[in-house]
Design goal:
Elements lengths: L3 H11 L3 H15 L6 H16 L8 H10 L5 H12 L21 H9 L4 H13 L11 H16 L6 H16 L49 H19 L38 H19 L7 H24 L4 H15 L6 H18 L4 H14 L4 H13 L1 H7 L2 H4 L1 H10 L1 H15 L5 H9 L1 H16 L10 H8 L1 H10 L13 H7 L7 H24 L2 H14 L7 H21 L2 H5 L1 H8 L3 H5 L1 H14 L10 H20 L11 H17 L4 H16 L9 H18 L2 H8 L3 H4 L10 H15 L1
Helix pairs in contact: 2-3, 2-4, 3-5, 4-5, 5-6, 7-8, 8-10, 9-10, 9-11, 10-12, 11-12, 12-14, 13-14, 14-15, 14-16, 15-19, 16-20, 19-20, 19-22, 20-26, 21-26, 21-27, 22-23, 22-26, 26-28, 28-32, 30-32, 30-33, 32-34, 33-34, 34-36, 34-37, 35-36
Length: 802
């Protein structure tokens, strides 16, 4: 939300009268016609941008002012470039003053003018003409110092390709591929900017070319790359850097550009001044006979091989070390791209990737590099027939277990899984077993990664993991607290009193309780569905119930449980579903003591208990003992009202011969007696201290369930009728202890009278309370064997004839 002052400024900008706005335009135009632009000019431009940006409709600027703003795009002051570009973008489309460049003035193009130029493009033709103009500017020879217009060419083209990859013609693709080869492989190997060799007689004439250096300070013996350093850089060296930055995008979008059989470029000698033959990765001259696409692929391969070799050098600066990591990520991704396009390169690439993995696998600081390496193994490991288990054990084992608190790694790793989910499920057996480790990302930073797990969770639900995964999801807030304790135990000395949380930290270090926490921190599934001392664990972690991370985690668990149950219903057999019902009944009382969390979990359990039983009504008979035990406990009326109500409804609805032929009279009677005892107990006395009156929904559900059961066993009807009559008499005599609200009492009594009236006619009661399936879901309008379709057709013909 904006501050009060900001809201006031925005309101003034929106409500400025038109005469005042015209005066402001005139004042600004006078300021811009001066020679020097001071703070008043900058403030006025900022105010103009605010006025234009907060209004719903585009405003037209006076032509002279618009023309003056266009001229500011070439101002030497970058702040004026930024403000004029921002203002003009708010007035698009420009009225008669469109920004335009031709071959003569393209050298004046800067980044802000380029942004406006792209913004005003209205069609693919506009983008194509801009690309043509930019590519013509690439014909010059390399010079000392970077040319701004040339250095902007590749970023602009890269942006255009992002939005419209088919705006380049085949000839333009060929041209740019050749230029990329030149810049990547044949850039100058001497430092730019006239670097001096030093000495007493140093001067313009005594300056000698100084070779570029590696990050460790040694003189470079191979071609220039982005990891080479120097006091200055030539234009082609800058273009080398830009070419590498867009190379992967170019390779990925190459097939989207107008395709065709490119002619072999046998006569191409794309070689610029200052080029050298690589001492490390020199190839035969036959590579020059390749078509442009294949040649670019070969040079990209050589460039990335060189970067991987350079990354093994010890950099002097920390920033250079980070640059090495970033270049490694990009290099491996590019190698993966070229191997996807040309499978023959897989065998040349794998030794290098395998050696790189061996070098980096023991260093956790290179974790972000391992994700592209894992992608490479996933895409090409099977073809190269290499053992990938070491990669998967590291990626799914150590990294989530030790680096769960790295947000960048979490994002990249989960994105890798989402993009390759089908392949990972097929080729990585460790994926399913490692879900306890993967859940650590979710437990640590739930709001940031919950979207990823919405996509991933269904793939983790299998017949073998369903039960353990359900327990793990329910204990996810406990895992969050345990991860916090784990990090604190490393960062805080054992004897240091840290105020709040000391007792919990001591419990985490206590050997007798260590097993509880280690189970939550396990890296693989299969060691057991849950632990016996869950209640002990919840008591220990009760102190962590209000920790922010724990609270955030508890908020996402219900969402994931809905996804889990939707997947389970699709793939589980009846035996597994029966087991899950037992887990829901058991875990309804074994949850971390967060009141809102417990209520939400009970609501989820209730919803999906109904879905499971509706899908498989025989589950009610299979689990009748456990369901009756749960429904027969009066304490559940007060502590688990939501799920208790639904269990009672399920028993009354599906404990019927029509749902399962195994349902006997004795089973119906035992269920009736259990529910009758609970209903009598809660309506015969006031609730115990600490409990509130039961909700009317609980009482009416119990009465309905008893009536349904009695309609199936007529011997029970007198008992229900007697209870309902007593209930009506008690309500008429005055207030009752079990219902504090008069309106609630009226609704309960009304429901009782309806059921009592129905039970007076047992045959009718059974039809109403337990209607057949064809009554619940009628399709008479589609059934040609009944009279309704004939009547409808007759009525239709009569109305149409009129």
């Amino acid at each position: 939300m904006y501050s009060h002052a900001s809201e006031s400024f925005i309101k003034q900008a929106r409500e400025i009268p038109e005469p005042e706005l015209q005066k402001f335009y005139s004042k600004l135009l006078k300021l811009l016609q001066g020679k020097d632009f001071g703070h008043e000019t900058l403030d006025s431009l900022q105010r103009l941008y605010l006025i234009l940006s907060v209004n719903k409709y585009t405003k037209l600027l006076p032509p002279e002012l618009q023309k003056k703003l266009l001229s500011l795009l070439s101002s030497p002051v970058e702040q004026l470039q930024v403000l004029s570009s921002a203002v003009l973008r708010e007035t698009l489309p420009l009225s008669g003053q469109e920004l335009s460049y031709n071959q003569e003035n393209i050298s004046q193009l800067n980044s802000h003018a380029a942004a406006l130029l792209l913004s005003q493009a209205e069609s693919k033709a506009d983008l194509s003409s801009l690309c043509t103009l930019l590519l013509r500017g690439l014909e010059g020879r390399p010079s000392e110092g970077p040319s701004p217009s040339l250095m902007l060419t590749l970023p602009i083209i890269n942006t255009i390709l992002t939005h419209s990859p088919d705006c380049l013609t085949e000839d333009q693709v060929t041209l740019l591929s050749k230029k990329l080869v030149d810049w990547l492989r044949y850039a100058s190997i001497v430092q730019g900017g006239g670097a001096s060799s030093g000495g007493f007689f140093t001067g313009p004439r005594s300056r000698q070319p100084v070779p570029i250096a590696e990050l460790d300070g040694t003189v470079s013996g191979d071609f220039f790359t982005v990891l080479c350093v120097g006091q200055g850089f030539t234009e082609d060296q800058w273009m080398n850097v830009y070419s590498f930055s867009m190379l992967r995008h170019w390779l990925l979008t190459y097939h989207s550009v107008s395709s065709g059989n490119l002619m072999s470029d046998a006569d191409d000698r794309s070689e610029v001044d200052g080029s050298v033959v690589s001492m490390v990765s020199a190839t035969s001259s036959s590579s020059r006979l390749l078509p442009p696409k294949e040649r670019l692929r070969e040079k990209a391969f050589q460039y990335c091989q060189r970067l991987i070799e350079q990354s093994d050098r010890k950099a002097h600066k920390r920033t250079d070390t980070e640059l090495q990591k970033a270049c490694l990520v990009e290099a491996v991704c590019i190698l993966d791209c070229v191997c996807v396009e040309d499978a023959s390169l897989v065998y040349r690439t794998f030794p290098c990737i395998k050696a790189l993995f061996g070098r980096l696998s023991s260093d956790l600081s290179f974790a972000r590099v391992l994700i592209p390496i894992a992608q490479f193994y996933l895409n090409h490991g099977e073809m190269a027939a290499v053992d990938c288990d070491g990669v998967w054990m590291l990626v799914f084992g150590r990294y989530p277990g030790e680096l769960f608190n790295d947000p960048f790694l979490a994002h990249e790793f989960l994105r890798f899984l989402r993009l390759n989910l089908d392949s990972v499920q097929l080729r990585v057996p460790q994926y399913i077993r490692s879900f306890p480790n993967l859940l650590k990302f979710l437990a640590w930073d739930s709001p940031a990664v919950v979207d990823d797990f919405v996509d991933l969770l269904p793939s983790l639900v299998t017949p073998g993991t369903a039960v353990e995964l359900l327990h793990s999801l329910l204990d996810l807030p406990c895992l969050t607290a345990t991860l916090v304790l784990q990090l604190r135990s490393v960062s805080l000395p054992i004897a240091e009193p840290s105020g709040r949380g000391v007792r919990l930290q001591d419990a985490f270090r206590n050997p007798s309780l260590r097993g509880l926490f280690l189970f939550l921190l396990r890296g693989e599934a299969g060691s057991g569905d849950t632990i016996d001392r869950l209640s002990t664990l919840h008591e220990l972690l009760a102190e962590a119930a209000d920790w922010p991370r724990v609270v955030h985690c508890a908020q996402v668990v219900p969402v994931l449980l809905h996804i889990y149950f939707h997947r389970v219903v699709e793939m589980a057999d009846e035996k597994l579903l029966a087991h899950l019902i037992l887990v829901m009944l058991e875990r309804s009382s074994l949850l971390l003591k967060i009141p809102t969390y417990i209520r939400e979990i009970h609501r989820v359990f209730s919803c999906h208990l109904l879905r499971l039983c509706k899908r498989r009504p025989s589950l009610v008979v299979d689990q009748s003992h456990e369901l009756l035990e749960f429904a027969g406990a009066t304490a559940n009326v007060y502590s688990k009202e939501e799920i208790f109500t639904h269990v009672v409804w399920v028993l009354g609805e599906y404990l019927s011969v029509s749902c399962d032929s195994r349902c006997s009279v004795s089973l119906i009677t035992s269920c009736f007696e259990a529910l009758e005892a609970v209903l009598f107990e809660i309506t015969s006395s006031a609730p115990s201290p600490g409990n509130i009156c039961p909700a009317p929904k609980v009482i009416t559900t119990l009465m309905s369930a008893l009536a349904k059961l009695a309609s199936r066993s007529h011997d029970l009807i007198p008992r229900v009728s007697l209870f309902l009559s007593k209930l009506r008499t008690a309500a008429r005599s005055g207030s009752v202890a079990w219902c504090a609200d008069e309106e609630d009492l009226v609704s309960v009594v009304t429901r009782g009278e309806e059921l009592w009236s129905l039970l007076k006619a047992p045959g009718v009661a059974q039809s109403v309370l337990t209607p057949p399936a064809h009554i619940n879901a009628p399709q008479w309008h589609r059934d040609t064997n009944v009279a309704s379709p004939l009547q409808l057709r007759a009525l239709t013909s009569l109305t149409h004839s009129q």
